[in-house]
Write a structure and sequence with these properties.
The protein has about 475 residues and is an alpha+beta fold. Helix content is about 30%, strand content about 25%. The structure holds flavin-adenine dinucleotide (FAD).
Length: about 475
Amino acid sequence: MNFHFGDSNSQINAEVCVIGGGPAGATIARQLALLGHSVYLIEKTDNSQNKVGESLPPNILVLLDALGLQKRIEEASFLRPDKTIVRWSDKSDFTKHSNGQRGFLVNRGRFDQILLEAAKEAGVKVIQPAQAMRPVFDDTQCWNIPVKYSSGLLKIKAKYLVEAVGKRSFFGWKKERFSAPTVALYAYWQNPNVEKYATLIEAGREEWFWGAHLPDGNFSAMVFIDPKRKRSNRNLESFYRSLLAESSLLRGCLEGTITSKVKGCDASSYIDTEPVNKHSIKVGETCFSIDPLSSQGVQAAMNSGLQGSFVVHTLLTRPENSADAIEFYQNRQKETVARHHKFAAQFYSEAYFHDTESFWRKRVNSESSLLPAIPQKVSDLSDNMRLRLSDSATLIDVPCIAGDIIVKRRGLIHPSFERPVAYVNNAEIASLLNIIPQGGTSAEIKQAWMPYISPLESAGIIDWLYTTGVLVDSLSDRVK
Ligand SMILES: Cc1cc2nc3c(=O)[nH]c(=O)nc-3n(C[C@H](O)[C@H](O)[C@H](O)COP(=O)(O)OP(=O)(O)OC[C@H]3O[C@@H](n4cnc5c(N)ncnc54)[C@H](O)[C@@H]3O)c2cc1C
């Protein structure tokens, strides 16, 4: 859609204004438009430049499918890497081959623009390239957002504000760091002498390396270090080259030609402690940043955009549920951060130098687990075993998505769950648990659940409840 703003002091009225058109901003804007809201999105760049976040692992396909975007991304001719070479825990390689589904190696400028085009098609009015200035909340309970664009300045007046500006925020950062400070140094190369068709990951003595070929023919090579080392090396390019020379997988870059400036960026993990209120929400990296080790930042950003869309929709259309919507978003944010935190801690603790070098020790320590280890047993459930609810299983009220609104539902909590569970296979778990015949066999439980779910689904749920310890053998000792 093309815009004609008239004179340079035009004012636009919108229900929602999204600032930032990266993966998080484009996702929330599109979802809100699909839910019937009038949405404007301001994006500073024209996406002709590349940016970090180029590796998208196979599990992003589930999210893309849920958003109805999988086909577009698959048809965009991005690379579909088949293997990852990891030189990490000892000097021999661990080669992971994709098991059926492959992820993507993308040029992020192009990837982001595809998401923005999809948002436009859903009805979002995208103003790009244009830079939003600091928004002001006025007496009429609306946001006034000055926007600089090629022909001058315009003002957007919006009821609700979405901040999706990446690692920055317009309002006093409530940032809490939860990893050792890290910076990434990176540049692009042509004709490097490195393994083709693979993503390369390597642990060094006081750094780790990541590299991959991109669809535009460039090779992206990154080094993750303690920021103190960057500060003490004034010539960034020669420092970066000296680091690459230490890498057995990436040193072949130095036989090719560097095609960009060497850049540095913050790669530390943090969480914003005030991610949402009744008038504004932060999504993507404005809300939290996870360790790049998992290559899941883009996915996590899009997911927070999706979850945020239900929150904003609830705040705008069902204000009486505001507290539930806010609690829902805070819970999801903390869980996402904790899950990635745990993954990174585990991976850092497996690195070759993890117990001798401070770079690794700091990361293993600071990444101490926020989530309990979840013991899962192999199912030995037999047909005649009599089952009862474990004493550690409790039902509480939890905010969750029902349709497209956040509501409170009874959810099950148990030490083996990362978070309360309200639904299984579209059935409310509380309703199912409330009618379990205590001391019943699995056949009797299936019978009781017959009006609600099929016997096949019942069998799966009973097995899951048993292996997670929610259902226990009724003859087992009760926990004191
Ligand atoms: C070194 C490094 C490597 C990484 N590698 C990976 C990886 O391999 N895979 C992966 O999934 N993730 C990776 N990540 C994480 C990934 O880059 C981020 O998670 C992702 O980009 C976050 O998306 P976002 O939409 O929140 O923010 P961004 O992608 O930063 O988008 C924010 C947008 O807001 C716009 N903007 C900012 N200010 C304004 C303004 N005032 N007005 C208008 N527009 C504005 C910007 O132009 C930008 O387009 C990596 C991160 C780092 C630091």
